[in-house]
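Raw record, unedited: Dihydroorotate dehydrogenase B (NAD(+)), electron transfer subunit
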Amino acid sequence: MRKKQGRLTIVKQTEVARDSYELVLEGELVKHMSQPGQFLHVRVDESEDLLLRRPISIANIDPEKEQVTMIYRAGGAGTKRLAAQRVGTEVDVLGPLGQGFPLEEAKRGEEVLLVGGGIGVPPLYYLGRRLVENGARVTSVLGFASQADVFYEQPFKQLGNVHIATADGSYGAPGFVTDVISQQSLDFDVLYSCGPTPMLKALTARYRERRAFISLEERMGCGVGACFACVCHVENGQAHEYRKICTDGPVFPVGEVVL
Ligand SMILES: Cc1cc2nc3c(=O)[nH]c(=O)nc-3n(C[C@H](O)[C@H](O)[C@H](O)COP(=O)(O)OP(=O)(O)OC[C@H]3O[C@@H](n4cnc5c(N)ncnc54)[C@H](O)[C@@H]3O)c2cc1C
Ligand code: FES
């Protein structure tokens, strides 16, 4: 597939939780974006010291306005630089990249469980919107470190039932998303998840035999299949069998790759 790259203009940049920003970009490149779970590779600014792009998931798309929303945590040098960019600034974006969540796996009327942790929550919002449009019934379980980190509870509530968990117990249920799933006896036809590796490992251990899909947000370099920084091994595969998270993923069927 031909690489897509363009300059998008910042039309909104708001802090939605502690050190977490909702960034809305506008421009022609957005017309190529439609698959939930794909990501954009963002050049945070034009300075020489931050040449490496940062991968950030698509959290929402408004095709009519040609706007894409991302939600990111400003944790390191690059994302902090991005958070300092103001409305009206142009940002260099490569994408959409990767293989997103398979929407067709959830049929009309089926129960879908969205399980997100921290910066893994954003791509599940656009996924949930598309699933609801397709007639699936969506329940979301969203985990955060603390109350100050919680974002997008209301938008998710518009899609269906929402359960929030915080690790320190300051909001919602105390503990992890997996605790909530057990306590509430939540079941599903299809599960989609994105979040930290320990969470994805726990879900894989439980739901290996189920219709479940996980998105990996851990390792990335070039974003386009050229550098091998994102390689992961296939479960029970030969030593030479691998997948590239950037081009084969970031979404994989549960149990396909070694976490
Ligand atoms: C497919 C994908 C989707 C993602 N979606 C989101 C999202 O929607 N919201 C969000 O907040 N974060 C997301 N991330 C994580 C985000 O890319 C990292 O938090 C970010 O790159 C860290 O950059 P930094 O400038 O804060 O840190 P720095 O420490 O300055 O980063 C240094 C280098 O390491 C890389 N790096 C560091 N941590 C990560 C990481 N966890 N994943 C990938 N590369 C990393 C950076 O890209 C950069 O090249 C996603 C990651 C991937 C792979
Ligand atoms: S990030 Fe370079 S090959 Fe995947």
